[in-house]
Amino acid sequence: MGISFTVLSSGSTGNATIVRGGGTTLMIDAGLSARRVEELLTMRELRGEEIAGILVTHEHSDHIKGLGAVARKYGLPIYANSGTWSAMEKSIGNIEEHNRIILETGQFKDFGDLRVESFAISHDAAEPVGYNFYEGKDKLSVATDLGYVSDKVKAAISDADVLVLEANHDIEMLRMGRYPWNTKRRILGDMGHLSNDAAGAALSEILTGRTKRTYLAHLSRDHNMIDLARMSVRGAMEDRGCFYKDSEFRLCDTYYDQPTPWDTVSES
């Protein structure tokens, strides 16, 4: 059947993604209220009872706001590394011991025929990670909330059939925006968020012809726009000699207020 997924919500107001493969349905993060998570699941004809577990990228509230409530309601195991567990356990409330599962950075975990791998990213959190998903020859990579794309991250996400990659902000919009300078400096730093230009530069280095779609994720509502992100990322790629036809590679949108359509990796 291949890997299928939908980005339920992406942005500073909350993040959650569903990945299906090998007969298993997993959620990445639950950064919205439990009620909102359920609404988004319903929009994609899903029920909480179908989810086998929740993978956590890091402990910031836009990734764990509803984590404890969703996990308790459906009796779901939570998978996170030791650093993230230590940083978030006071925020998510009581979780039964058998549902507190440590998945250390770099480890693999098999859910039937779906294999999950975490990899380290650069962000101002305790031990932030991205995730790779494998089924057979198919690969889906998810990497958001990273200040820059290191060589190790490039190696981790290269050759993904489909990639979910952060394109958080337009640099000039951020510089001219209403945030205080300390916040701007944090976002622009190596442990902040990835700009449109940086996302395009990374893509220009890692695309090999296998990656057919990249979803631009975690867009700032104050310092980015969907059309601008797509145009800027493509422009940054072309500036570095990476040209492509839409029939060969597409940039796709994510949204803070609605899920993306279901996409199937094996059809890329």
Task: Report on the architecture of this protein.
Residues 13-191 form the Metallo-beta-lactamase domain. It catalyses: 3',5'-cyclic UMP + H2O = UMP + H(+); 3',5'-cyclic CMP + H2O = CMP + H(+). One of its GO terms (molecular function) is hydrolase activity. It comes from Paenibacillus sabinae T27. The chain has 268 residues and is an alpha/beta fold. It has one domain: Metallo-beta-lactamase, Chain A. The chain is built from nine helices and 14 strands. The chain has a seven-stranded mixed sheet. Strands 7-8-9-10-11-12-13 form a seven-stranded mixed sheet. The protein is globular and about 50 Å long. It starts with a strand and ends with a strand. The model has no long low-confidence stretch (mean pLDDT 96).
Short description:
With 268 residues, this protein is an alpha/beta fold. The protein has nine helices and 14 strands. It has helices at residues 34-43, 61-64, 67-74, 82-92, 151-157, 171-176, 181-188, 196-206, 226-239, and strands at 4-9, 16-21, 24-28, 53-55, 78-80, 100-102, 108-111, 114-120, 129-135, 138-143, 162-166, 213-217, 250-253, 263-264.
Any idea how many domains? Answer: 1
What is the string of SSEs from the N terminus onward?
Answer: EEEHEHHEHEEEEEHEHHHEHEE
What share of the residues does DSSP label as strand, in percent? 15-25%
CATH level-4 homologous superfamily:
Ribonuclease Z/Hydroxyacylglutathione hydrolase-like
| Cα radius of gyration in angstroms | 17 Å
As a percent range, the share of helical residues equals 25-40%
CATH architecture: 4-Layer Sandwich
Which structural class best describes the helix and strand composition? alpha/beta
Largest sheet: 7 strands, mixed
Number of helices, where a helix is a run of at least 4 consecutive DSSP H or I residues: 9
- The residue ranges in which pLDDT falls below 50 over 5 or more consecutive positions are none
CATH topology type: Metallo-beta-lactamase, Chain A
Strand ordering within the main sheet: 6-5-4-3-2-1-14
CATH top level is Alpha Beta
> Which shape, going by the Cα principal axes?
globular
> What is the residue-averaged pLDDT?
96
Per DSSP E runs of 2 or more residues, the count of β-strands stands at 14
How far the N terminus sits from the C terminus, by CA atoms, comes to: 13 Å
